[in-house]
Amino acid sequence: MTVYTRRDDPGLPDRVALRDGVEVRHVPAGPPEPIPKDELLPHMKEFGRHLARTWRVSPPDVVHSHFWMSGIASLRAVRELGLPLLHTYHALGTVKRRHQQLADTSPPKRIAYETEVGLGCDRVIATCRDEVVELGRMGIPSGRITVVPCGVDTALFTPRGPAAAPGTARHRLLQLGRLVPRKGAAVAIDALALLPGTELVIVGGPPADRLDEDPEVRRLRRIAADAGVADRVRFIGGVPSREVPALLRGADVVVCPADYEPFGIVPLEAMACGKPVVASAVGGQLDTVADPSTGRLVPPRDPDALARAVGELLADPEARRACGAAGRRRVLRRYGWGRVAAATEAAYCAVLDAQPAVKGVV
Predict the structure, then answer these.
(1) pLDDT tens for residues 129-181?
(2) What PANTHER family does the annotation carry (predicted)?
């Protein structure tokens, strides 16, 4: 397998071997420096030309593009060479625009390009059922879509192992993810005001020594002060992935109150660690969190509903243990990397089997 990614540093080698059979190639497309995601579109034509030149010499059996801009580059190349293409969006412009409106910084043509990719590829691999509905609204029929969820490393994220040391509060909530308004940390802070004896640990954003500079941290601290819970909200900052399981294991309940969530890997990581999850009933969380067996689903942007669901779990240690155990079983049954890889391979095989026979090729 070869992974193609844009070169964003002139010192990067052309090729990097990750493990046996897996290689990363750095594609010269645009200046070799970091570029904000929403400014990458002008370089996709060059990316696609590079892919076409490379694949003309040594064509892959199948191409799988991820995110809409990679889809554009890949679609240009496979059209020229007649190669099969599968695409995973991971996030859709229609959803982002609906929720962020004027704050959406995506290029204006994003939705049109996403539609072109969805209609032009051989198969879309969606990550949840909610995405299938969204794609249908874009005119992409469900018969062209296969649902394969994201996965989690069940050997790293496990109930066994060290847990973060308890704080002074009786209970601990944990929220993990990027520090952007749509992730709903403000909702969790408002809910905390209704949960006495409970602290909220927020993991994500810049490193701990740069938290004071972050605009979102400053905004959330003001909200916490206004709600009278500043002394019960703790910001950890961004941490390496290897430190995340211990933080999850140290929580009583993991909260995921995003306004919208295209898939949401945090509920899976929490469930894999045997922790109950209270999440907003949006996007992929509708698939991953089974209410009431592994946690609770609540309306987005509703701190009262979030507080009620969390409060019920905090008051019932046996329910928390049962949810945690059920969550672990659910992850092992549906979301381990082995199952996700097998489902992805099956989608590849289905597309390859549907390709027209080529003269001289068996």
Answers:
(1) 999 999 999 999 999 999 999 999 999 999 999 999 999 999 999 999 999 99
(2) GLYCOSYL TRANSFERASE GROUP 1, GLYCOSYLTRANSFERASE
Confirm if 208 and 234 have CB atoms less than 8 A apart: no
Nearest Cα to Cα of residue 185 among 161, 211, 166? 211
Q: Is residue 362 part of a domain?
A: no
φ, ψ for residue 153 (rounded to 5)?
A: -80, 100
Is the CB of residue 32 less than 8 Å from the CB of residue 5?
Answer: no
Residue 159 lies in a domain: no
Determine contact, residues 249/162, Cβ cutoff 8 Å. Answer: yes
Distance CA 50, CA 29 (A): 8
Radius of gyration in angstroms for the set of CA atoms belonging to the chain, rounded to a whole number: 22
pTM for the whole thing?
A: 0.92
Compute the half-sphere exposure of residue 243: CA atoms within 13 Å on the CB side of its CA.
10
Supply the pLDDT for residue 102. Answer: 85
Looking up tokens 């847990």, which residue turns up?
163
Domain residues for the domain of 214 are 171-335
Positions in the chain whose pLDDT score sits under 70 = 357-362
- Residue 108 makes CB contacts below 8 A (sequence gap 6+) with none
What's at 74, amino acid-wise?
Answer: S
Regarding whether 126 and 24 lie in a shared domain, the answer is: yes
From the list 258, 200, 257, the residue with the least C-alpha distance to 229 is 200
Counts for the chain of helices (H) and strands (E), in that order: 13, 13
Same domain for 343 and 321: no
Q: What are phi and psi of 290, to 5 degrees?
A: -95, 110
For residue 19, list its beta bridge partners: 22
Query: DSSP labels for 198-219?
Result: EEEEEE-SS-GGGGGG-HHHHH
Question: What span, in angstroms and rounded, lies between the C-alpha atoms of 27 and 118?
Answer: 24
72 in any annotated domain:
yes
Kind of pairing, strands 15-19 and 198-203? unpaired
Same domain, 295 and 349: no
CATH number at residue 249: 3.40.50.2000
* 200 three-class SS: strand
pLDDT in the model for residue 356: 80
